[in-house]
Amino acid sequence: MKILMVCQGNICRSPAAEYLLRKMLGEKQLDTITIESAGLLKQTEGRVIHPKIAKWLKWYDCDAHRHHATYITHKNLSEYSYIMAMDRSIEQQLRTKYAKDFQDNIYLFGEITGSPKQLDIADPMKTKHFWATTRKINQLCRLWTSYFIEEPE
Question: What is the model's pTM?
C-alpha cells in the first residue's frame, strides 16, 4: 500500500506527516506501507524542509534533513491507496485539479479524529506555530497508525 501526504509547499506539514507516520508504522512492523509526500506549489520544488519543522521532527527521533520538496505532478497518483490532504483547501484542489480520477482515494488527514473541528491542520508558514503543528500531526499519525494496524492492506 502507498500513502501520499499533500500540503501546499511540501516543506512543513506533509513531510512532517510522512516522516512521523513512516516511523510509527515501522515500529509496528508495518514497513510494507510506503509513505511519501508532495506539495501543490511548483515554486517550492527542491527546497529543503523548513528548519523549525526539522527541529521538532528530530525531537520525535525523525531525521528529515534529506527531504526535498516534490511537486505533486511528478507523482503517479494511481499508485496511492490514500492521498491525504492537510486541509480542506488542499483537498478541494486535489479533487478539482490534480486527482480528479482518484476521488475515492482522497482523504483529509484530520478526518481520522471524527471531529469537524479537527479537519484542518493549519499551515505553520502562516501561523508560525511550528511546534503546535508538529505535535498535532504526531497525534494524528498515532491515530492513523492504529487504523492501519486494524485495517487489512
Answer: 0.95
